What we know:
Elements: E1 27-28, E2 33-34, H1 48-64, E3 77-78, E4 94-95, H2 97-108, H3 113-123, H4 127-131, H5 138-157, H6 163-166
Antiparallel strand pairs: 1-2, 3-4
Helix pairs in contact: 1-2, 1-3, 1-5, 3-5
Amino acid sequence: MPFDCTxxxxxxxxxxxxxxxxxxxxxxxxxxxxxPRPMPxxxxxxxPESVDSTLAVLGRARELLAxxxxxxxxxxxxxxxxxPVPVHSAVARRYCALGAIMRAGCELQLRVDHARSALxxxxxxxxxxxxxxxxxxxxxxxxxxxxAIVAVTACIAWPIHTxxxxxxxxxxxxxxxxPANPNPMSLAAxxxxxxxxxRQ
Length: 200
């Protein structure tokens, strides 16, 4: 709207040089798929037992939500009669995404913190709010679980101590005092920082 408050009635024009094949961050509603976002270094534990338990909880939660009739909104768990029930109840048959994670943790007797964080990282919102969105579909929920499983599985492939992680700031940008390095291969030749040795 110009300064004199006259409305502009022109149709929007497409910008030149901007294509429609930009990367999709999030859910493709037509296909029901979710592109997995890699987990940041500090987000997920890299210990094998933690990764295994996270994958077990996510896998079991996905199994609990396998059919469209097994997913619900507005409550962690519901019975077949759509009555809200506790997650660990024997009559619970339908689960929201977070309720399925909680039930899987109860069944497997594992912690659910990392599984919840992995799913929230993929959805970009709190799971409860994301799941209860009226536009949400069952296929999108399953796709989010699949993306979380792929992202956590990728954590296994990353070694715990790499040369890039030994240099402060190498994973998420360089520190201010470290000059930019035009040669990307010189990072491979960087020395690995060793922990201080105890005095004898």
